[in-house]
Specification:
single chain, about 325 residues, alpha/beta, Metallo-beta-lactamase, Chain A, Rossmann fold, 2 domains, 7-stranded mixed β-sheet, 6-stranded mixed β-sheet
Length: about 325
């Protein structure tokens, strides 16, 4: 089996095309799976991504050379065929298929297998080798249905309105924040967003997405009773929160699936909402690729690779600079 994608000190390297996928050090040419900061870093000579990712990349990385592809559109680089397919992670997120001399590899980036209503849904891609994440690669991680989550978050908001409190939800500014915005019932009250979320909302609109009406938090606004505010995790515990008193807080994360996480992160409520695949999603995605070899890049790598090996795959885990989903002060996931 050819080694189409290698792992070196810069990242995932497609030697035959002389191009990197989600490199963590500056290189001449980079294919970017999505615009979260652990996958899209500053300093590359040129960036290639799915075209919806470009507005996010420009806001995060500034001026640069950007080229966009549509999903399922192929290009040739030194005889290597490169194609992007939906990963369902966040708007514009893509899997990268690499075909060369009869061999096919797919680098998943981050992905989830449920339709979030804002991202193009995950599409299984047939390949010989699949490079997968494993952020939530344990059987304990199983996500609730969208309808259940939607009911939970709106019911929580409604209770806070009754108690004349502001509802503050902490969620990544790209992907999860917009997903929550679309889950909210705008008839309940006003929806506000932190400036970091507003910037990503504007990029979503630039990318052609339609979002619910929202307002950006302004210094001049003082009455937030009954409103709902979406903010990045870095705002948790900050002086910025004082303007919303009295308030109730909630964290939106797959880690809320684990007992005690809410208490350790000092929030009142937890919603099990993740932009990564759960245990069943990971296993189904890998099965549907038809891959014989699986490379696990981040998350519960050793455990998940061992599980795959015990279930008939040639599986290995590798160390990378990708982070998956975090709860600490990270506004870029």
């Amino acid at each position: 089996m050819k080694q189409l994608i290698e792992f070196n000190e810069n990242g995932m390297y497609v030697r035959a095309a002389d191009v990197y996928i989600d490199p963590w050090r500056p290189v001449k040419r980079a294919i970017i799976t999505h615009a979260h900061s652990d996958h899209a870093r500053w300093g590359m000579g040129a960036y290639l991504s799915q075209h919806q990712s470009i507005p996010f990349l420009k806001r995060r990385l500034g001026d640069g050379i950007y080229e966009g592809l549509n999903y399922r559109q192929s290009i040739q680089i030194n005889g290597v065929e490169i194609t992007l397919f939906p990963s369902g992670h966040v708007p514009g997120a893509a899997q990268v298929r690499v075909k060369y001399e009869g061999e096919t590899w797919v680098a998943s980036g981050d992905y989830k297998t449920v339709d979030d209503g804002i991202s193009e849904p995950f599409e299984p891609v047939l390949c010989d080798t699949f490079i997968t994440e494993s952020t939530f690669g344990l059987p304990v991680f199983n996500w609730p249905e969208l309808a259940v989550l939607t009911h939970q978050i709106n019911q929580w908001w409604q209770q806070n309105i009754y108690e004349q409190k502001c509802s503050v939800v902490f969620a990544y500014s790209l992907g999860k924040a917009q997903r929550i915005l679309q889950m909210l019932n705008p008839e309940l009250g006003k929806i506000y967003v932190h400036g970091a979320v507003a910037s990503m909302n504007e990029a979503c609109i630039e990318a052609g997405l339609t979002l619910h009406t929202y307002h950006t938090v302004q210094p001049s606004t003082t009455d937030y009773a009954g409103a709902l505010v979406i903010a990045p995790p870095s705002a948790l515990g900050s002086p910025w929160l004082k303007k919303f008193e009295p308030y109730d807080t909630a964290m939106a994360s797959g880690w809320m699936n684990m007992r005690g996480t809410r208490r350790r992160n000092a929030v009142d409520t937890g919603f099990v909402i993740s932009d990564h695949a759960d245990w069943q999603g990971l296993n189904n995605a890998i099965k549907n690729t038809g891959a014989e070899q699986v490379i696990v890049t981040h998350g519960y790598t050793a455990i998940f690779a061992k599980w795959l090996s015990e279930n008939g795959y040639q599986a290995i885990d590798v160390k990378t600079a990708y982070e998956g989903e975090t709860l600490i002060n990270n506004d870029s996931e």
